Amino acid sequence: MFSNLRKFGVNHKKISILHVNNMCCCKIKASLKRLKPYVPLGRSYSSPPGLVGNDIKSLHSIISPPIAKIRNIGIMAHIDAGKTTTTERILYYSGYTRSLGDVDDGDTVTDFMAQERERGITIQSAAVTFDWKGYRVNLIDTPGHVDFTLEVERCLRVLDGAVAVFDASAGVEAQTLTVWRQADKHKIPRICFLNKMDKTGASFKYAVESIREKLKAKPLLLQLPLGEGKAFKGVVDVVSKEKLLWNRPSEDGKDFERKPLLETSDAELLKETTEARNDLIEQLQAAIHRVTLAQTAVPVLCGSALKNKGVQPLLDAITMYLPSPEERNYEFLQWYKGELCALAFKVLHDKQRGPLVFMRIYSGMIKPQSAIYNINGNCTERVSRLLLPFADQHIEIPSLTAGNIALTVGLKHTATGDTIASSKSSALAAARRAGREGEKQHRQNNEAERLLLAGVEIPEPVFFCTIEPPSVARQPDLDYALKCLQREDPSLKVKLDPDSGQTVLCGMGELHIEIIHDRIKREYGLETYLGPLQVAYRETILNAVRATDTLDRTLGDKRHLVTVELEVKPIETPSVTPIIKYAPSVSEDLPKVSQEAIENGIHSACLQGPLLGSPIQDVAITLHSLIIHPGTSTTMISACVSRCIQKALKKADKQVLEPLMNLEVTVMGDYLSPVLADLAQRRGTIQEIQTRQENKIVIGFVPLAEIMGYSTVLRTLTSGSATFALELCNYQAMNPQDQATLLSRRSGLNQVL
């Protein structure tokens, strides 16, 4: 029966018909009808492997492969290292695309947003599912730009392994360190792929040494390059002692030949390969797999994705050395006893289908039309349809099991970081098991909860600006657009200015805000107006102060009376939220509702400091006395506490904190002097200057306020030859002179407004 099944193909114009010779396979036909593909891209895709020609697998193995054959991996790197190009080649060689997409041409599969294709960068992570030699690979291409670090963070949270892509001419770069630390945090096994071996200045030795020195990782050399720069033609497999050569007749890189290294013709290469091979503790693939999983070493491969060399061996390494879901130890799974446990890690909005929620299934199964329980939101929702993600086209499927990444339709309240269970009773049972285990091991309750609700840490925004609709009548449309975009992107914050009533956008950088503005125009048809971009400062105090306040109001026939005495003092350990303490006399008989009201008032007061209206941080607040008249509402308690804190903050010596950025500039030696002179004018501090072949790497710190528009200036100073990378370091106190200048400027701006 299956031998007669010829083809199930998809292209951008029509769905190929399922041809069955001589017999009617009604059951197969009915099953495959559920596999509805959605293909908005104007590109041609070949059929998924396993459904072409005579190599036919059962429908079950295609949709739900054995968990040991699943690989959930991410591609991560510094911007411009070649992540998207590598992903594009992977899809081509695995048979999922018929042509090689190019970032410069704007026709890659995973960079499907208009903004990505115009700028040639990845902004949103894109999920791609494909098969390779009997393995199901769920691959996520992540951004490399610092403004979109959260995209990387939330994807790493659900991956079992990762491929770190390096520019072989640059080695470890600024954002490489960031994503590597993120992978360390989630204990993710990695493979290193030294890309761009064909680039002028490529150095295998330098790149490997930078991995060893900067990442403090132990490189496990599985390959050596055959030539570097323009002379690069292939790789040597250290384990098998074979040469892999990509010959010129094979323009797309599909065909390559393996040749054994011979002492007669390759004496020097054989000697070098043997030495590298001897450095491996064992030469078995199982041993390499074991040390990769233990994260005691990282396998290193090389190639050139753009020149179509070295990608197939990388795919083999992914399946051989990176773990399957069952090889990863997720402690929280034991509480679920095989029932559904999934994590929502990304939300997209589709005009036709509504919110699309990406989920990593850790245990159990998801089916269309099934009810699921959102632990974070404490609500039950129904999954209307289940899709297999392939960038921005999706195939509808009847079910998906543990270890897979699913795309669900119909969930209206689920957001990034939410934990999903099959039902409320299942979640409560899991919580009870976690609690019992926590008591045995003397854990605190909140740790058990953390195991159930392990989401994504969302960084605080560093830029903000006002945003206005074209008319007052379009304000609801803007509110809706921002609500949708916030659900997609938790690092985007939206708030209302209490004084002006304007909507304020808060984001991770200039590019981040620019992309949001552009998306509102293209996707929601709103021509909005942005105010000037401003730095998100913070405030703190320098000395301890006490304050007392009484609120006495009569509303109707009810009297509300509260008297509060509290102390606000600075703390040395950085803390974005205030540390709240209670004097023994207060905490003894304090009802829970009153405590919640007090803490709401404290947090509300700390949102706006007395100097710039910026959030207050690095303070501890101690409540020394609280007198509440019977019948006083919790709202009045909050208002009195908030007013008392504002009074204390005004009495204290105040300090503005500004965001300080880690800066790395790569510049040719000839332009080093003007770059250093410019950084000095920007209050920059140089830590060190490294040499990377012909370039100089300037590493230091610079206040964020001084770096706005820096890309244009740097381009002018260096004739377009330099690049730079930024990352938030911390918030530091401004010196008195700079603080006075800032306050004077802000005061003048407010008067103008």
TrEMBL record:
Keyword annotations for this protein, in alphabetical order, are:
GTP-binding, Hydrolase, Mitochondrion, Nucleotide-binding, Protein biosynthesis
Binding positions for GTP?
77-84, 141-145, 195-198
Q: Which GO terms describe its biological process?
A: mitochondrial translation; ribosome disassembly
Quote the catalytic activity from the record.
GTP + H2O = GDP + phosphate + H(+)
In terms of Pfam families, this protein maps to: EFG_C, EFG_III, EFG_IV, GTP_EFTU, GTP_EFTU_D2
What do the Gene Ontology cellular component annotations say? mitochondrial matrix
Superkingdom of source? Eukaryota
User: What family does this chain come from, according to its entry?
Assistant: Belongs to the TRAFAC class translation factor GTPase superfamily. Classic translation factor GTPase family. EF-G/EF-2 subfamily.
Q: What does this protein do?
A: Mitochondrial GTPase that mediates the disassembly of ribosomes from messenger RNA at the termination of mitochondrial protein biosynthesis. Acts in collaboration with MRRF. GTP hydrolysis follows the ribosome disassembly and probably occurs on the ribosome large subunit. Not involved in the GTP-dependent ribosomal translocation step during translation elongation.
UniProt name for this protein = Ribosome-releasing factor 2, mitochondrial
